[in-house]
User: Which sequence fits this backbone?
């Protein structure tokens, strides 16, 4: 069964919240609490969990640990997935530092750049290779997912090289949309869009 | 008229693409071209543009300059909106550097941190103030939108202070969901969710 994109997003968000709950000593949570924390309805939460075959809310709510494990079985790859980052400027470094260690089944194992000051060094805890060695490193380190954090003008070229190197999923952080073959999963993630969305609704609210 | 969230997202993305087209000397674009660049259908593009009262695709396609201006009138605030960033670690710096200069009507005008090595300095082109001066600076600099890029454990406290200071829209980059009053627009933007989404669909594709 392939879940809808939005459901996958929400499951990932539920898990994040459940992990925070556990970290704060809270072992159970009600659907309406989970809903409140995500600004959605309790019906939506229950529908998502029903979709993944989980409906055992007890008197004291969902068992956080159990639900984390159910979501993990769906979202995670049992053997883990390796990730590479292309471009180790501010953004690439921030993403790497932000990401690593947060999810045991998903690890940034290599970085790529063309700047000789960055290559052949460890940056943000990760080996940084020259971009010309992409195909070799992808193969050697079994990298299946790539993050593009290089200058926008390079995005299309980088995407093409990634696809040629056998990358199966791309998260594009640049402001340039890219295209990839159907067998590669692409997620475009432009911060400006989110900022413009906030700005639009702030404007709308102020006109009320 | 208040547009649906997803339409606002797509309009922002169309504008980004149209700006890139113009920069590359392309003055007109067909709905199917725009659709292809965004991995959606041409029907969706035309529906979005109809919704904003724009339907003048000529023989040679939409006039990029004209469409940019129509979208701008809808999305942008005429006088511009000022943005503040809380937390000037890797992420705050990356976001500021990434963002500033990209949109004339939306500017990061101040940053906030508690680290004395960062306060009272210019970082990534922006004055960094101590977080305790938040309310004063927000008022003085007429800041309406805030980006939270501080450590996750501080997110709720930061959000509360932002709301108290009169902030109208928040973009939360931390991994902790926050809650705000109804009159404040909140967008949660957790990179891990996007990565997990890519990982999930890579896994699904590999099982085909």
Assistant:
């Amino acid at each position: 069964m392939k879940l809808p994109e939005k459901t996958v997003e929400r499951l990932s968000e539920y898990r994040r919240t459940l992990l925070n709950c556990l970290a704060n000593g809270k072992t159970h949570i009600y659907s309406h609490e989970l809903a409140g924390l995500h600004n959605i309805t309790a019906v939506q939460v229950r529908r998502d969990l029903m979709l993944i075959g989980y409906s055992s809310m007890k008197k004291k709510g969902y068992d956080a640990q159990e639900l984390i494990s159910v979501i993990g079985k769906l979202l995670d790859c049992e053997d883990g997935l390796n990730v590479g980052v292309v471009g180790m400027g501010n953004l690439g470094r921030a993403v790497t530092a932000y990401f690593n260690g947060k999810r045991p089944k998903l690890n940034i194992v290599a970085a790529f750049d063309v700047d000789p000051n960055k290559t052949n060094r460890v940056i943000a805890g990760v080996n940084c290779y020259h971009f010309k060695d992409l195909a070799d490193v992808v193969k050697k380190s079994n990298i299946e997912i790539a993050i593009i954090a290089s200058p926008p003008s390079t995005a299309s070229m980088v995407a093409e090289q990634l696809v040629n190197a056998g990358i199966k999923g791309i998260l594009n952080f640049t402001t340039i949309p890219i295209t990839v073959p159907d067998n590669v999963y692409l997620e475009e993630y432009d911060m400006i869009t989110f900022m413009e969305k906030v700005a639009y609704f702030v404007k709308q609210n102020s006109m009320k």
About this structure: Chain B has a mean pLDDT of 90. The longest helix of chain B spans residues 5-23. The helical segments of chain B are 5-23, 31-37, 42-51, 64-75, 90-99, 134-140, 155-164, 191-207. Residues 145 and 169 of chain B are 5 Å apart (CA to CA).
